[in-house]
């Protein structure tokens, strides 16, 4: 599986935008970029995914570099409830199982 | 509302005993997955199933067993052969179709402690 690299931790202030980076230099043409987040003692929650174009949904935006070797999850106005571990994951739909492989993610702290 | 249910939320087991964790989903998802999470770590895949009566080993299958007799259910048995079973166990499900895909749906987890 292609690997992703994320910073271990990031901090933000409440109501400010947050940009969470992810590097995936070995991404293949069929890999989709997925983001999940996990609150303490809960299961991960799907945030957003994309292939080549930037994507927006009610939770966040995903900006994908033109060469697809990196991406950025954007939370437009951080709230205290956004404090979580954020995982950037590559999913290849052509392989059997299309399994997700989780790294250690980025711990986001949001300061009031 | 559709969702995925794991039970129990907390489970205590004596050393040498097998224990089964339940996972049920009513999302009509074909694929189901079991992950293990240790403190401060990411998730590691134990087993997954793409279709009823079929499943594959993940990265850390030793000491675990599963069955997939019904689409809705994917129970995980932690056997006495698992050397360090104390962990947070997460079940997930997903569609196997790319169209309309909305990612995995996770349960709220079972925290297993061996005493």
Label this structure with key terms.
heterodimer; A: 112 residues; mainly beta; five-stranded mixed beta sheet; four-stranded antiparallel beta sheet; 9 strands; 0% helix; 46% strand; globular; B: 115 residues; seven-stranded mixed beta sheet
Report what the structure shows:
The complex is a heterodimer of chains A (112) and B (115). Chain A is mostly beta strands and 112 residues long. Chain A is globular, with a radius of gyration of 13 Å. In chain A, the strands form two sheets. Chain A has a five-stranded mixed beta sheet with strand order 1-9-8-3-4, with no helix packed on it. The termini of chain A are far apart. Chain A has strands at residues 9-13, 18-23, 31-38, 45-50, 55-56, 61-64, 70-75, 84-92, 106-111. The mean pLDDT of chain A is 90. With 115 residues, chain B is mainly β. Chain B has no helices and eleven strands. Chain B has strands at 4-7, 10-13, 19-25, 31-37, 43-51, 54-57, 64-66, 76-78, 87-94, 105-106, 110-114. In chain B, strands 2, 4, 5, 6, 9, 10 and 11 form a seven-stranded mixed beta sheet that branches. A four-stranded antiparallel beta sheet of chain B has the order 1-3-8-7, with no helix packed on it. In chain B, a hairpin with a 5-residue loop joins strand 4 (31-37) and strand 5 (43-51). The N and C termini of chain B lie far apart (36 Å). In chain B, 34% of the residues are buried. The model of chain B has no long low-confidence stretch (mean pLDDT 91). The chains are: A mainly beta (112), B mainly beta (115). Chains A and B meet through strand 4 of A and strand 4, strand 5, strand 9 and strand 10 of B.
Secondary-structure class of chain B: mainly beta
Rg of chain A, nearest Å: 13 Å
Order of helices and strands of chain A: EEEEEEEEE
Largest sheet of chain A: 5 strands, mixed
Identify the strand order in the major beta sheet of chain A.
1-9-8-3-4
User: For the CA atoms, what is the radius of gyration of chain B?
Assistant: 14 Å
Count the E strands of chain A: 9
Structural class of chain A: mainly beta
What is the mean pLDDT of chain A? 90
How much beta of chain A, percentage-wise?
over 45%
Q: Compute the average pLDDT of chain B.
A: 91
- What is the molecular shape of chain A? globular
Anisotropy-based shape of chain B: globular
> How far is it from the N-terminal to the C-terminal residue of chain B, by CA?
36 Å
Largest sheet of chain B: 7 strands, mixed
Uncertain spans of chain A: none
Most extensive contact: A-B, 21 and 29 residues
- Number of continuous helical runs of chain A: 0
